[in-house]
Amino acid sequence: MLPRLELLYMSALLAFFVSPLDNYLGSIGILPLRPTILFVAGFLPVAIVAAVRWVQSGMRVGDPSDLVSSNSHLTIAFTFVVAVALLWNIHPHVAAAGVEPSAVRLYGLINLGAALALAGAGVRECHVANLLLPAMLVMIVTMYADFRAPGTFSVDGYRAAGVAQNSNVAGFVVVLITAASLTYERVRLRDLVLLAVCGMGVVWTSSRAAILVFGGVVLFWCQRSFSLGTLRGRAPWLGVATVAVAVVLVVFASYSVRVGEAYDWVAARRVSTIFAVDGPETLIWSVDRMRCARYSLDALPGHWILGHGTGFTRSLVMGPHNLFLEQWVSNGLPGLLGLCWLLGVGFLAAVRRGSSLALATMLVISVQCLFSHNLLDERAPLLILGLVMGVTAVPAAGRQRALARDAAAVRGKLAGQPA
User: Fold this and answer.
1) What angle do CA 379, 136, 286 make, to 5 degrees?
2) Does 416 fall in a domain?
3) Which of 17, 58, 230, 245 has its CA 20 to 30 A from that of 336?
């Protein structure tokens, strides 16, 4: 077990950089150093501890080695995405559009590596929920301040965002933290409280994408909890109550895209329901988002294979709000296939490990790719992805070795028996 002081340090790191409190403090000029420098300085001790443990293990079979080998495909896939983004910086269309070269994807690779180092330093799956709790508290408290006094933190005015400053980002972050903190193997009161808090936070943001992803997380949690938990004698009414609460929250949120209207359940301007698709501001339909996609699709003819260069979509009237489109328009088929490779590797690893935690995390990130074009540039999803993939790798590798030893023992016994 990790010492309490080390866990406190790591939880403080995640609270500061997942929330993302550092970006907010940097935007108002409080931080003495740039957030990127603080990030490297903060995670450097963690990386050193992980490296020392790896060397002490002889870089062979063991926790750090399992961490590296089990996540090698994920790291290689992400490195490919980063390499394509860096190479496509020299695309002539980028220079013609006046877009400056960007190395933000390289910083994203550092984020992923830093999160994997947490597991290498000794963090285990049982620690994840407690490590992410301070980050969740920072988000919810500041989002509530925005809800009570719109514009306190949010740049979206009436839509709460907290220190994330963007309501869509805020909604996604709290849902992702929740997905990485749930139990999935049994129904617990702690999980119910977490889901309720997350649901209210999502409603405060009025983010359609966050509402839909939150609903998906609740359904996935219920399915896993019922199949793995209630069959062992857990109280089934807790799961039923959770489903009911989730449905109420999502349906209620579908009546209001504007937080100010959330106080009026029968607002004349909000008569659509969760199933409505005939207006510009319903839960599952947005004329603005369709227009964003059309701008990106209109730029593709003649550039299907190589795209226009990294960052080209910043020169469009509207961004695509879809990471698949972003990759295709900017980095062509190599970028699009690289993203699919990355997500596919993540899902395959989660399935092979039999980890509901890893599967839920990949589910949230993959669905959010349909609503955000800068997901790989955000620190929170990369930190949580690396943390989850790290902590689930070691026990899975241990189980595989145990099975291999048992199989070898059985074969040895059979080989020793007389014909």
Assistant:
1) 70
2) no
3) 17
| Structural domains in the chain (count) | 1
CA–CA separation, 307 vs 295, rounded Å? 14
Q: Which three-class secondary structure state does DSSP give residue 285?
A: strand
What is the CB neighbour count within 10 angstroms for residue 116?
25
* Tens-place pLDDT, residues 17-50: 999 899 899 888 888 888 889 999 999 999 998 8
Which residues span the domain enclosing 38? 4-403
Q: Is 321 helix (H, G, I), strand (E, B) or coil?
A: coil
Q: What's the number of CA atoms in the CB half-sphere (13 Å) around residue 304?
A: 2
Residue with tokens 């990355």: 342
Provide the token pair at 54: 């790896």
Paired residues of 286 in beta bridges: 281
The model's pTM? 0.85
Return the residue matching tokens 């009414």: 237
CA 296 to CA 303: how far, in whole Å?
11
Asked, for residue 417, whether it belongs to a domain, the answer is: no
Q: Angle of helix 128-148 relative to helix 189-205, nearest 10 degrees? A: 40
Are the CB atoms for 179 and 194 separated by under 8 Å? no
